[in-house]
Design a protein that fits this description.
Helices cover about 20% and strands about 15% of the residues. The protein is built from 3 helices and 6 strands, in the order ββαβββαβα. It has helices spanning about 35-40, 110-125, 155-165; strands at about 5-10, 25-30, 50-55, 60, 95-100, 135. Strands 1-4-3-5-2-6 form a 6-stranded mixed β-sheet, with helices on both faces. The longest helix has 18 residues, at about 110-125. The chain is globular and about 40 Å long.
Length: about 170
């Protein structure tokens, strides 16, 4: 799998490397637009970022180098994630992908194909297993405040089927 076309945008909001291996991809919903997210992540005062953003038009933006933890996962609150490491910020061992739109939006096909290509590239590059504990939604880390992240419109079944070559995965 070749690296998809990714536009570097950059964000000042990230941590220095902590020595943890990335073991999971965390999917998010922007609750807004790609342009708005680009601007928000560029502000040091926002104190948030993600590694990648995928637009409804299929554009992929990168905000943080994979060697650095992004500031995407926030507070741990009633998690339901078996790989959560006690006492360790999950930003240190995850890569985060924001998706343009609102919770409940159906992902346009071009956006889906871009997020699929990005997932495939990350899985191969970072040696991430394709399981429902290694590819998760933000709600698995914070089930209280982020219960709708990445949202009801996120195509979990299709994504896992495509990533595993057509086999079913229960979420």
């Amino acid at each position: 799998m070749n690296k998809p076309n990714i536009t570097w945008i950059g964000s000042p909001n990230f941590s220095s490397p902590k020595g943890y291996k990335i073991i999971a991809i965390v999917n998010h919903i922007m609750s807004g637009t790609l342009t708005g997210t680009d601007a928000w992540f560029a502000k040091p005062t926002s104190k948030v970022s993600s590694h990648f953003g995928v637009g409804k038009n299929g554009e992929i933006h990168q905000y943080v180098n994979l060697a650095n933890p992004a500031w995407a996962n926030g507070v741990i609150n009633k998690p339901n994630w078996a790989l959560l490491q006690s006492g360790v910020n999950p930003n240190y061992y995850t890569v985060s992908i924001e998706h343009e739109g609102e919770s409940g939006d159906v992902m346009p096909e071009v956006q889906y194909q871009s997020t699929l290509a990005l997932h495939q590239w990350l899985i191969r590059t970072l040696n991430i297993p394709v399981t429902c504990d290694n590819i998760i939604g933000h709600y698995r880390i914070d089930s209280v405040n982020k219960a709708k992240c990445p949202g009801t419109g996120f195509p979990w079944d299709r994504l896992f089927q495509d990533l595993q070559g057509g086999s079913d995965v229960l979420m």
